[in-house]
Write a structure and sequence with these properties.
Pathway: Carbohydrate metabolism; tricarboxylic acid cycle; isocitrate from oxaloacetate: step 1/2. Helix content is about 55%, strand content about 5%. It has helices at about 35-45, 45-55, 60-70, 80-85, 95-110, 120-145, 155-165, 175-190, 195-205, 210-225, 230-245, 250-255, 280-295, 300-310, 315-320, 325-335, 345-365, and strands at about 20-25, 30, 35. Bound molecules: carboxymethyl coenzyme *A.
């Protein structure tokens, strides 16, 4: 009953109030808990930012150390859960493995499922942040046929993830401090983005009072798609295709403008930003730094820079306010660090995790929260009389 308004894609409908992230899409502003993303990127680690998003305040040195130590205690996966990875085909997409494994956390950690018990919520929060890097690296190891690496809790969060992903038990793994810093920064830049598709999914699932693991695994699946987190993999594939086809950038941009076969310039455009994505601005600088270190400059970086130049000077993109988004340059950095394209979206998930958790917790703590249940405009048949099988 009452008036129902159609708003496909929620272009103009707020589904909640939130005190976590502020975006001004016209001005290209992003703040977590009031702090500008540029300042957090410069001065805070990913763990500090995770703490900030979840608990609302920047941690003191003691608080972040204590937080890190709590996480450290939970980096191992249950041994039975390790076996879980054997069941998937070798060529499975790691995002599919990740969402399944996160969902499976509900089966192994049944003592932290009650969304209204603060201690259990705290426990599932710490477990998720601790175990998702382990799961992500196992998904990768499985796909390349290498032994799974146990976490090394002497290392920091990002260091540990890199070692589990690239290390082997037969040799010491040498961490490259530039890569550690770059990955920490990229995770920070992905850590929250208010009511995007995956976060809205986490809230929607959680609004039925489903547990945190179940809600986050749904978020991982939402992130999988190429219009959302999957864009970082799609960008690299696009750059590679342009490179391999020997096409020039102008020819590719012409095909995008003609909407040939629905192709889009991946890594461009955003529902909220109608200006340069502030995260892309920071990432572009990092890309140039990290790629400057690898022996042979990646020709794909030149293609990306040229694409950006051509698009930003073209009325098709200017009039539609299409600018590079967070995903445009990330793939190039991940590639330079040695990550295969299939793992790029998993890195996005790792970064977005504290945001999903913070948003879920904010919703659960809000007594005015209601189950998510959109309305519809029915456009089907009016009432008609049932026809028995014999007369159809
Ligand atoms: N390349 C070419 N044209 C585009 C693009 C693009 N990347 N993005 C939007 N357009 C055009 C679109 O064709 C439409 O033109 P017209 O008015 O002639 O039909 C107009 O711009 C508006 O597009 P829209 O699809 O209605 O905009 P939206 O707000 O629904 O979509 C978006 C936002 C991010 C899904 C879209 O810009 C897109 O598909 N971009 C490419 C994928 C991508 O990079 N996604 C990552 C988003 S940022 C981080 C994340 O969420 O993961």
């Amino acid at each position: 009953t009452g008036h129902v308004t159609l708003d496909q894609g929620f272009m103009n409908t707020a589904a909640c109030t939130s005190a976590i992230t502020y975006i001004d899409g016209d001005a290209g502003i992003l703040r977590y808990r009031g702090y500008p993303i540029e300042q957090l990127a410069e001065g805070a680690s990913f763990l500090e930012v995770s703490y900030l998003l979840i608990y609302g305040q920047l941690p003191t040195a003691t608080q972040v150390e204590e937080f890190g130590n709590r996480i450290r205690l939970h980096t191992l996966l249950h041994e039975e859960m390790r076996r879980f990875f054997d069941g998937f085909p070798r060529d499975a997409h790691p995002m599919a493995v990740l969402s399944s494994a996160v969902s499976a956390l509900s089966t192994f950690y049944q003592d932290s499922l009650d969304p209204f018990d603060p201690e259990q919520v705290e426990m599932s929060t710490v477990r998720l942040i601790a175990k998702v890097p382990t799961i992500a690296s196992y998904a990768h190891k499985k796909s390349i046929g290498q032994p799974l690496m146990y976490p090394d809790n002497r290392l920091g969060y990002v260091e540990n993830f890199l070692r589990m992903t690239f290390g082997v038990p037969t040799a010491d793994y040498e961490l490259d401090p530039v890569f550690v810093k770059a990955l920490d920064l990229l995770l920070t830049l992905h850590a929250d983005h208010e009511q995007n598709c995956s976060t809205s999914t986490v809230r929607m699932v959680g609004s039925s009072q489903a547990n945190l693991f179940a809600s986050v695994s749904a978020g991982v699946n939402a992130l999988f798609g190429p219009l959302h987190g999957g864009a970082n993999q799609a960008v690299l594939e696009m750059l590679q295709q342009i490179h391999d086809s020997g096409d020039d950038v102008d020819a590719f941009v012409r095909r995008v403008k003609n909407k040939e076969a629905g192709i889009r310039l991946m890594g461009f455009g955003h529902r909220v930003y109608k200006n340069y994505d502030p995260r892309a601005m920071i990432i572009k600088k990092t890309a140039q730094e990290v790629l400057g270190r690898t022996q042979n400059a990646d020709p794909l970086l030149d293609i990306a820079i040229k694409l950006e130049e051509v698009a930003l000077a073209d009325d098709f993109f200017v009039s539609r306010k299409l600018y590079p988004n967070v995903d445009f340059y990330t793939g190039l950095i991940y590639k330079a660090m040695g990550f295969p394209p299939q793992l790029f979206t998993v890195l996005f998930a790792l970064g977005r995790l504290p945001g999903w958790i913070a948003q879920w917790r904010e919703m659960m703590a809000d007594p005015t929260t209601k189950i998510g249940r959109p309305r519809q405009i029915y456009v089907g048949e009016p009432e008609r009389k049932f026809v028995p099988m014999a007369s159809r």
